[in-house]
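Summary of Year 1 activities. Much of the first year was spent building the evaluation harness for sequence design. The harness presents a backbone, in tokenized form, and records the residue chosen at every position. We chose the following record to illustrate the format because it has been used consistently in internal testing since the harness was completed.
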């Protein structure tokens, strides 16, 4: 059992580590998105630097990484495992994938903030609450223009949706994970929070790719 779990966690980390924004930028645009814009290897900065044609595939693939990591638990499932055992494995795989996105082994451990991959995890484990979080994010983005603020508010309200509104409190590990989301996202956005408080945070905009690159 320990061997199977270890292999699953390593695979989830390697999947999460796939640096979609970096590879797409380098292969198709000869640009490392980490050297431009916000310097973040995520979908938002990819859209800013390279445009929608690059950013949307990055977003989809980053979300898929998180979903796939959780889904892999079905291939490592053992008949003697209980439902909590399977959920615990899914959570471990989810964590490994998000860590992989933030610290990708393939490109010097300098990745993104894990929001899209975390969304994929959420869609696999908390589908309804994740859809609510997406709607909250979009509402905040449309009203404020700040991607970071939308991400933070969506994350902070996520456990409220999952635990209080939907009442999904059956498994302690899922409760802990929902609460962890509300801590993890603001933590990874602490510099954004400082800029928001100073009024220095950049609003979301799309920069057309420099034709000379």
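For this record, the design step produced the sequence shown next.
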């Amino acid at each position: 059992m320990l061997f199977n779990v270890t292999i699953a966690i390593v695979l989830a980390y390697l999947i999460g580590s796939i640096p979609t924004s970096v590879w797409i930028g380098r292969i198709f645009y000869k640009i490392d998105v980490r050297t431009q814009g916000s310097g973040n290897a995520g979908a938002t900065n990819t859209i800013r630097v390279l445009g929608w044609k690059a950013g949307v595939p990055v977003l989809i693939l980053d979300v898929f990484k998180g979903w796939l990591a959780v889904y892999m638990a079905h291939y490592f499932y053992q008949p003697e495992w209980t439902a909590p055992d399977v959920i615990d494995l899914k959570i471990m795989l989810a964590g490994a994938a998000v860590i992989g996105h933030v610290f990708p082994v393939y490109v010097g451990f300098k990745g993104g903030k894990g929001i899209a991959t975390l969304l994929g995890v959420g869609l696999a484990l908390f589908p309804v609450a994740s859809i609510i979080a997406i709607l909250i994010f979009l509402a905040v983005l449309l009203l404020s223009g700040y991607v970071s603020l939308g991400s933070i508010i969506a994350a902070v309200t996520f456990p409220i949706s999952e635990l209080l509104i939907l009442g999904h409190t059956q498994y302690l590990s899922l409760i802990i994970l929902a609460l962890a989301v509300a801590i993890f996202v603001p933590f990874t956005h602490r510099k954004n929070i400082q800029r928001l408080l100073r009024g220095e945070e950049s609003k979301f905009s799309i920069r057309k790719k420099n034709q000379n690159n």
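Residues 139 and 150 are 8 Å apart (CA to CA). Quantitative recovery figures across the full test set are reported in Table 2.
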